[in-house]
Structure prediction request, 579 residues.
Amino acid sequence: MGHTMIEKIIAHNVGREVKPGDIVTVNSDYVMLDDIMMPFIVSKFKEMGFKKVWDPGKVVIICDHLVPASQVDDTRAYHISCDFAEEQGIGNLHRSDGICHQLMTEAGYVKPGHVVFGTDSHTTTYGCVGAFSTGIGYTEMAGILGTGQLWVRVPSTIKVNITGKLPENVMSKDIILRIIGDLTAAGATYKALEFTGDTVENMSVASRMTMTNMAIEAGAKCGLFAPDAKTAEYCGIELDEFQASLKGDEDAVYEAVMNYKAEDFVPVMAVPSNVDHVVPISELGDVNVDQVFLGSCTNGRLEDLMAAAEILKGKKIAPYVKMIVTPASRKVYKEALANGTLEILSAAGAIITHPSCGLCCGRTGGILTDGEVVVATNNRNFLGRMGTSKVNIYLASPKSAAASALAGKICSAEI
Amino acid sequence: MEKFTGRVWVMGDDIDTDIIMPTEYLVFKTIGEMKPYAFSPLRPELAAQIQPGDIIVAGKNFGCGSSREQAPEVVKALGIKCVIAKSFARIFFRNAINNGLLLIENADLADDMKEGDEITVTVNEKIEYNGKDYPIVSLPDNLVEIIDAGGLVKAMRKRNGLED
Prediction:
């Protein structure tokens, strides 16, 4: 009998065949610790009686939620992060390089077939290169720091097969939002999502990242793309025999298969205040926009900024709209600066900020108040996520966000 | 089997961890400082009304969203005896177990439950409400081991020879 991708990754890690439902102890290839959780991780690590992390080279600490600080208390987490790195000899410390989920693959840590845990739910992102990665709490992270290991239940898999050519103004964000709408917010709980078909094979790694980033919004344990030539190029490696074998077998057993035709996708938004409340933009009616946010680990990459710039080139956003652009990393920032993208966005009236989690977690630069509407390219529109609990957050693709900024009202890029 | 009775607070589907503990309060040094803000985006008055021994009964996907462990910790710190939901999100489920917060899955109770009423829970057996029994499925062995050890921190302390 064949195997799904997640079964192959876990089997390779534990050195024996596995099936869905098996509870196994896996070894972490990397762990990702973000600043906001560091005070709790360090305190639990010490409380557990550990002195040294199991392998400093496999630990990555990233300051992104609280850098630069927006409140004086934020600096505490920063200093705890830096002090712990020094004490433990952890060289993989990013003080202000960008968002954790962008850096874990961009900076060359995660490779196809790896098993990675992080103290943030969007750790599912690294499935974009064919790694099993998922979010955990700080107590479990403290345990892994001491032992290198964590128990997991081998998940069953839902295969999402997409074939054909996407309409021009549809981005991978529109695809994953539609899938989450169809699955619902709990539809993939405890399960793996495996994305297949020529539509996703033709996608860039950046576009794939948007989809694996949001796998958690359907409750999934992970989202996976089979590594291919693009993955190898992005990771700067040649795929070895194991990595090249990482795709679902023809005779693998799937819990469900969802088939989509690319031509059927349309620009959509997730409307307040659930990510699975997904509506075609053409059905949203007349909604004025106060602010647009282009950024985050979901859609803050170079291709996202360039897609928005293409729409805004030589134009001005509506005068009453604040458009905030937050590149996902310093590398993205520098590339967007070098190729003129930031200049176009700035000339159109956008505010360009430093790379960080920024507005996505409602801590810095551009929080909103009661009754205001924001079109945002990030991954959550929960109550209170970007200011008060009466802010209306619409999640959209970079193209739809740019078009909405231009029009000053919710719309997709074809209008 | 442990048996207890408690007053119930009723919540809907998809109660996410941003609702249970909003991001802006995560930088507080202690869970105690976060307590007054639990559930504030949805029900700002609730944290002050919850009494130790109370029970939360909710719909599907309780604890979805962020991996923040402050969410189950603050629920426990408020004195909530257990959360009964139609289903739980994966990360919240693990975090709750690791902190010794009892979670019980039951598909029907939330639809029948009236806020303020009392229920009686017999762990790993049943919930009694309004003259009706609602069955409880028992937990897998590896999770029972963590709970029996008193949570993951204690299990690791034992491993490191700091506790018997």
